[in-house]
Write a structure and sequence with these properties.
This protein is α+β, with helices and mostly antiparallel strands. The protein folds into five domains: 7-96, Alpha-Beta Complex (DNA Primase, Chain A); 107-242, DNA primase, catalytic core, N-terminal domain (DNA primase DNAg catalytic core, N-terminal domain), CATH 3.90.980; 246-376, Dna Topoisomerase Vi A Subunit, Chain: A, domain 2, CATH 3.40.1360.10; 383-430; 454-634. The protein contains 30 helices and 15 strands. Keywords: DNA replication, DNA-binding, DNA-directed RNA polymerase, Magnesium, Metal-binding, Nucleotidyltransferase, Primosome, Transcription, Transferase, Zinc, Zinc-finger.
């Protein structure tokens, strides 16, 4: 029964050849290197005492140097168990958890057609390689040898050819091999004109075969020598064999080289890949004339967990780097990353290798930057952030990027790195990243009238002290905003500057800010971070908070938020003042420093007293106390004055 395209390739990647073969042999551990997927044993197919049977787990193939038996996992099961092909496939599919597809009446016909198209491609590659050696290919040979500095051995390694500047050269050659016109057109190598006549698609071009993951040619790329040609590079159209967005140039050799420890390099074009490989950077691939696609990125990550994007140092290369960042952000996960190397002086890898050699290329690769740094550079380079509005605009853009990262752990680490970069840019004297400015209790529509709510005064928050209290207040603030998303915009600035403790709180903060306009915010967070949300809402002090118990009253929630933010800032403001004061001390504190500390402590004491004392305790002095507290905050008594 014919199998769908790609089924066997996926099956081979899901099973480990050494585990299949290991049931029949005893590995020679002195000769084997398990870490590199290199296994040796006496051959199971003939009688021997020495370990001449070799299994390469990374390639998925075995070979016996004694009897010359060779194959993959399917072949081994078939030969060792004396089974038919489909029986062997079914056994391996069960082990891999794959379902054998139902019989498709048209599958055999499609498989036969693909086989015929593969034969057309093979014949075309042979024809073009031969043309490169003829007199008609003299200019192409000169270009490859002098301009590209490629040897004849390199031409052969890459199956490079030459398409004569003739409309019927390949068509006539294929016809002489008995290939039908419809197959020529279906292969993408021959095109049909409006009048029905056929002509060669590639003319006057150096030919680079494009191969699949098994090294078989599936399409062609052509580089024009005529500077007036409509397109410098031309790829074949998509066919039954060739899907441009799911193909990488040099995929199979790069995968093999990466398996041997070579760093995977993603370049922009054929010649870059060829130049890199010829210079010793053999794990090099490229997309095919377009921006890299999601499928290609996933294919790249299957080859290497942290490939290096080697991009031209011109405007187009920088733009390509930014497109890759936007594409990759939602796909990031633990263990899968990108590093980006921008080449100097507008050069591409081929230019750099010719001008300065392999050591210069290696130096560029060694300086490749993680993606987060390129993201930060894009949003900050050449811009001035000399006002709160500009800094707020930057914060909004960065929050948008963070919200696109679906992996919670990656998102949290990105947020930490961006906080560090912001601190380096603005400095503590100008800007405290993710820390709230002085919140103004007693002013504006968020100030709770009449002081603390009775339910808040009796909660666990009133009994907690120190860092524990701060963490509890953070939890109530986050839970309130999750359950009352309509308040997010009103408290957005305070929330984004809040200095949170713990990865879960930071992750929830980012999800809240990203979901400001989502009426079903709680459901979205429950779907993306169920453990963090459950841990937050199940805490006793959160469960008894008024805005958590009453999710319908947004005004009550607003009052509680204002109160919790004010108290949290009052405590942290006092703590920061003490820490700064300790740094200022050189010997005994002077009177000015003592006064600053006393005023900060008094501000905190009055703020907390307003939160835990019944209104009757304050009597008519509540208004005066509020004014005094506000004046202390307005004058920022904890800020060191120049003396």
């Amino acid at each position: 029964m014919p199998l769908p395209n790609g089924f066997l390739d996926e099956l081979r990647t899901r099973v480990t050849l050494s585990s299949i073969v290991g049931r029949k042999v005893t590995w020679d551990m002195r000769k084997s290197n398990l870490a590199k997927g290199d296994f040796w044993a006496p051959c199971p197919f003939h009688q021997e005492k020495t370990a001449s049977f070799h299994v390469d787990d990374r390639k998925g193939f075995y070979y016996c140097f004694g009897c010359h038996a060779k194959g993959d996992a399917v072949t081994f099961v078939k030969e060792s168990e004396n089974l038919g092909f489909m029986e062997a496939v079914e056994i391996l599919a069960r082990e891999a958890g794959m379902q054998i597809p139902a019989r498709d009446p048209g599958a055999a016909e499609r498989a036969d057609r693909r086989t015929l198209l593969q034969q057309v491609m093979d014949e075309a590659v042979k024809f073009y390689r031969l043309q490169l050696k003829t007199a008609a290919g003299a200019d192409a040979r000169s270009y490859l040898a002098q301009k590209r500095r490629l040897t004849e051995a390199a031409w052969d390694r890459w199956d490079i050819g030459w398409a004569p500047n003739n409309r019927h050269a390949l068509k006539d050659a294929l016809a002489a091999k008995g290939i039908a016109p419809d197959l020529m057109v279906a292969s993408g190598l021959v095109a049909r004109a409006d009048d029905g006549s056929l002509y060669d698609r590639f003319r006057g071009r150096i030919i680079f075969p494009i191969k699949d993951t098994r090294g078989r040619p599936i399409s062609l790329g052509g580089r024009a020598l005529d500077p007036n040609a409509p397109a410098k590079y031309l790829n074949g159209p998509e066919t039954d064999l060739f899907d441009k967005g799911r193909t990488l140039f040099n995929h199979a050799p790069a995968r093999e080289a990466a398996g041997k420890g070579k760093p995977l390099i993603v370049a922009e074009g054929y010649m870059d890949v060829i130049a890199l490989s010829e210079a010793g950077f053999t794990a090099a691939v490229a997309p095919l004339g377009t921006a890299i696609t999601e499928d290609q990125l996933r294919m790249i990550w299957k080859i290497s967990d942290e490939p290096i994007m080697a991009l031209d140092g011109d405007k187009a290369g920088i733009a390509a780097a930014q497109r890759v960042i936007d594409l990759a952000l939602p796909l990031l996960e633990a263990g899968k990353a990108l590093r980006i190397a921008i080449l100097p002086g507008g050069m591409d890898p081929d230019d750099l290798l010719k001008a300065q050699g392999a050591p210069a290329m290696q130096a560029v690769l060694d300086q490749a930057k993680p993606m987060v740094q390129l993201l930060w550079q894009r949003e900050t380079e050449g811009r001035v952030f000399d006002s709160p509005e500009r800094r707020a605009a930057l914060d909004k853009v960065l929050r948008g990027h963070l919200a696109r990262i679906t992996d919670p752990s990656i998102r949290s680490h990105y947020a930490d790195e961006i906080k560090r970069l912001r601190l380096d840019l603005f400095g503590t004297a100008q800007y405290r990243p993710f820390q709230p400015g002085p919140f103004r209790p007693g002013r504006g529509r968020f100030a709770p009238p009449g002081g603390a709510l009775a339910s808040t005064r009796s909660s666990l928050l009133a009994q907690a002290q120190g860092p524990v209290e701060e963490a509890l207040r953070e939890a109530v603030i986050l839970a309130t905003l999750i359950l009352h998303p309509a308040l997010i915009h009103r408290f957005e600035s305070a929330l984004e500057r809040l200095d949170l403790t713990g990865e879960d709180h930071e992750m929830l903060r980012q999800m809240i800010l990203a979901g400001a306009d989502m009426p079903d915010l709680r459901a979205k967070i429950a779907q993306s971070a169920p453990a963090a949300l459950d841990a937050l809402l199940s805490r006793p002090h959160v469960a008894i908070a008024p805005p958590v118990r009453n999710t319908q009253d947004d005004e009550l929630a607003a009052l509680c938020l204002a109160e919790e933010l004010a108290k949290l800032e009052a405590r942290r403001g006092a703590r920061r003042e003490i820490e700064d004061a300790m740094e200022d001390m050189d010997g005994l504190p002077d009177e000015g420093l003592t006064w600053r500390l006393s005023q900060a402590a008094e501000a905190r004491h009055r703020s907390e007293k307003g939160g835990i004392t019944d209104s009757s305790d304050l009597g008519e002095d509540r208004t005066a106390l509020s004014r005094h507290l506000q004046s202390l905050i307005d004058s920022q008594v904890w800020v060191k004055k120049n003396r």
